[in-house]
Every structure is written in C-alpha cells, then in structure tokens.
Amino acid sequence: MTYRRLDPERTVATVAQLVRRVGERFPDSGLVHVCEELLAIARETRETAEHIARPLVALRVAVGMVLLAILAALGYTLSQFDLVIAARSFVDLVQILEASMNAVALMGAAIFFLVTIENRVKRSRALAALHELRSIAHVIDMHQLTKDPKVPGVAVVDTPSSPSRTFDDYQLTRYLDYCSEMLSLLGKIAAVYAQTSADREVTSAVNEVEALTTGLSRKIWDKIQAIHVSHRPD
C-alpha cells in the first residue's frame, strides 16, 4: 500500500459508500441517481487510467513497420544519389538537392507524427473522459441550485413556480454536504488521470476540473454556513 498516489480502487469504494449513504437518507431523490452515475464514472476511470498507462503494443508495432518502410525508401534513394549526380549539370543538381531537402523535411514530419501518435491517442481519450467529469459537476450543481436555506426573520412567500421546500435545516445540511462530497470526489477522480499521464494538456484539463469543483463546492458551503449562522443564539 502506498500513500503517495491516489488509489482508484479506494476512490471507487468511497463513492460506493457515498451512494449507500445518500440512498439511505434520501431514497427518493434524484441525487441518488447522480451519485450512482458518479460511481459508474469512477469505475470507468479506473479502467481507462489503467488502459492509458499500458503501452499500445499493436499501435507501436504498426508504427515501427511504417518507420522501417520510410527508412528503407530513404536508404534506397540515397543509394541512387551518386548516379543521379553524375548524370546532371550543376543547375539540375541544385534542383535535385532542393527537392531532396523538401523530401527529408516531409519525412521528418511524418516520422514525428508517427512517433507521437500513441501519446495523442491516449491524450484524446483522457480529455474526453475529463470533459464528461466537467459535465457531471454541473449536474451536481443543478441539484443543489434551489436548495436555499431559510433567512431568519424573513417570511417565505411562495409562488406557483417556487421550488418545493420539504427539507428541514438538518436534512438540507446533509443534502448540501452530500453534494459537496460528490464534487470533492469528482476532483479526486480527475486527479487519477494526472498521475497516469504527464501530458500537459491532460494536466491542464485536470486542474480545470479541480478548480470547477472547488468553486462549486465553495458556493455549497456558503449555504451550509448560512444554516449554521441561523441557529446561533443572539
């Protein structure tokens, strides 16, 4: 057991426990289903991170074969170069050299594309997963959006379109706390990709998810704090 890296298995276990806690206290709420989706994403993240960490053997073999073909073609071209020089004038030689330099530049670009293709494939998969995490963060935020605490001394006048307020202060606190926990766990799920991939774009996307979840959680804690303040003695 190591305490220097996030363990995806323990993250999944923590989310699974949160699903049970939310289900036991709010069995008929939509928050249970959101938490279940979070659990499914945590499990998918574990598998995706493991896949990203493994080398893509088939892709590497294919790239290696293409690179060998390119190098073989380049070697054959160079072997014929002396014959071409002997049969051409100086002006033709300059043109041949210019064309050869362009061909070498194109080959270099092709080789760079092939060498980096594995990293780009893994990056694309990680960024797609992180985009999904950003989406579910907003879903969680939508569930707490209308869960506002009562303001002491202010009479509540509902309209036909007002959201229903069926929670007492303790239930509301627990509901908001669960939302905050889900956002926190979402940030930890995103961090699994950061420790799996050293790609700058992936790391930047992970930081964006963590900043988003932190900001949304801060709004929730402002509501929880307002509930606590309303119960303080004057």
Identify the notable features of this structure and list them briefly.
mainly alpha; 234 residues; 2 domains
Mean pLDDT: 81
Approximately what portion of the residues adopt beta-strand conformation?
under 5%
| N to C succession of SSEs | HHHHHHHH
Quick one: how many beta strands? 0
Unreliable segments of 5+ consecutive residues: none
Distance between the ends: 50 Å
Note the quaternary state here: single chain
Query: Major sheet: size, sense and barrel closure?
Result: none
Task: Supply Rg.
Answer: 29 Å
Question: Helical content, roughly?
Answer: over 70%
Structural class: mainly alpha
Overall geometry:
elongated
- The number of helices is 8
Provide the number of structural domains: 2
Describe this structure as you would to a colleague:
The chain is mainly α and 234 residues long. It folds into two domains: 131 residues; 61 residues. It contains eight helices and no strands. Helix 3 packs antiparallel against helix 5 and helix 6 runs antiparallel to helix 7. The longest helix has 31 residues. The protein is elongated and about 95 Å long.
